[in-house]
């Protein structure tokens, strides 16, 4: 079955450390997204990518970086510049543009600063 | 600026009850609206997607309606079951790659 795989499920980060969250999809979707979810808030967009080797900042990109070297993969790096990284991170994908097609989400990665 | 609101934030109902979840948005210029279910610690599962030209969509015991003029969508759940307990989120796609998510309604169905 097609879907989105996020790993790891849980991740712990020490102060000053960079960590990378993995997102892989086998849906042949063009667009991929990273969202951050905090308790009691709606999802907030970190980065999105329409095609390979292209990505755009979302509403809260500071302290994060991404790459899109393959259509199937869109990893997110949480850098030491992100001062409050503890949150639930969700990766999603859509067919081109998302206008007529809805989102498919992965199962999420919970990141905690220790 | 598009804003999406879901009220109430939490809802508790007895098993078997029919219920309605609400989603309000401030700008009627939308492309589509999507309803999701989220179980604790899990990702979002798509329930229904309504295009801007549609009035409603149905899947099993679920029915979602869309009224752009009033900026409202409702998710109707018939004959609720304990397994329906989850958080329900709506998401409004406003154009390009911009989608605004509501904070969700946490539903608890008591056996």
Q: What is the H-and-E element order of chain B?
A: EEEEEEEEEEE
Would you tell me the overall average pLDDT of chain A?
92
- Cα distance spanning the termini of chain A: 36 Å
Taking Cα atoms only, what radius of gyration of chain B do you get, to the nearest Å? 13 Å
What is the total tally of β strands of chain A? 11
Order of helices and strands of chain A: EEEEEEEEEEE
Which chains have the largest interface?
A-B, 29 and 27 residues
Strand content of chain B: over 45%
Beta fraction of chain A:
35-45%
Oligomeric form of this entry? Answer: heterodimer
Distance between the termini of chain B: 41 Å
Total count of helical runs of at least 4 residues of chain A: 0
State the major sheet of chain A.
Answer: 7 strands, mixed
Question: Helix coverage percent of residues of chain A?
Answer: under 10%
**Counted beta strands of chain B:** 11
Radius of gyration of chain A: 13 Å
Poorly predicted runs of chain B are: none
Specify the overall morphology of chain A.
globular
Q: Extract low-pLDDT stretches of chain A.
A: none
* Overall pLDDT metric of chain B: 95
What is the molecular shape of chain B? Answer: globular
Topology diagram in text:
The complex is a heterodimer of chains A (114) and B (111).
Chain A (H helix, E strand, L loop, with lengths): L3 E4 L2 E4 L5 E7 L5 E7 L6 E6 L6 E2 L6 E3 L9 E3 L8 E8 L9 E2 L3 E5 L1
Parallel strand pairs in A: 2-11
Antiparallel strand pairs in A: 1-3, 3-8, 4-5, 4-9, 5-6, 7-8, 9-10, 9-11
Chain B lengths: L3 E2 L4 E5 L4 E7 L6 E7 L5 E8 L4 E4 L2 E6 L4 E6 L8 E10 L2 E4 L3 E6 L1
Parallel strand pairs in B: 2-11
Antiparallel strand pairs in B: 1-3, 3-8, 4-5, 4-9, 6-7, 7-8, 9-10, 9-11
